[in-house]
Amino acid sequence: QVQLRESGGGLLQAGGSLRLSCTTSGRAFKSNAMGWFRQPPGKEREFVAGLSRSGNNTYYADSVKGRFTISRDSALNTVYLQMNGLKPDATATYYCAASKTYFSSSSKDYDYWGQGTQVAVSS
């Protein structure tokens, strides 16, 4: 069983930066592809960024490309999402997820989920 826990959310003004962390149990991300998703209030959950099982490949939604960075620290069993240039439309609950298979941008392909951390960006 893979356990994920997100942290790092908060309230900030547009243009600011925030780093989200996803702490995993054991070496979850070494045998799973990892993804960050977000769910804005009243909307569907959407893909934000992903990391292949090898850690060699990263993937981003077009809306965040160039501003967000996904990375991992093997020693700390943690996956990060660095978010720069935040806009009000980034307001959402952010979720970390793990897929036992390969990377996918579909939330349906992920097997494990964290509880989420909230991010609110004011204009």
Describe this structure in words.
It is globular and about 40 Å long. It is built from no helices and 11 strands. The protein is mainly beta and 123 residues long. The mean pLDDT is 94. The strands form 2 sheets. Strands 2, 4, 5, 6, 9, 10 and 11 form a 7-stranded mixed beta sheet that branches. Strands 1-3-8-7 form a 4-stranded antiparallel beta sheet, with no helix packed on it.
| Radius of gyration over all CA atoms, rounded | 13 Å
Q: Secondary-structure element sequence?
A: EEEEEEEEEEE
Overall, the morphology is globular
Low-confidence stretches: none
Mean pLDDT: 94
Largest sheet: 7 strands, mixed
Termini separation comes to 40 Å
Produce a short descriptive summary.
This protein is mainly beta.
Offer a few descriptive terms.
123 residues; mainly beta; seven-stranded mixed β-sheet; four-stranded antiparallel β-sheet; 48% strand; globular
Layout of secondary structure:
Elements: E1 4-7, E2 10-13, E3 18-24, E4 33-39, E5 46-51, E6 58-60, E7 68-73, E8 78-83, E9 92-99, E10 112-113, E11 117-122
Parallel strand pairs: 2-11
Antiparallel strand pairs: 1-3, 3-8, 4-5, 4-9, 5-6, 7-8, 9-10, 9-11
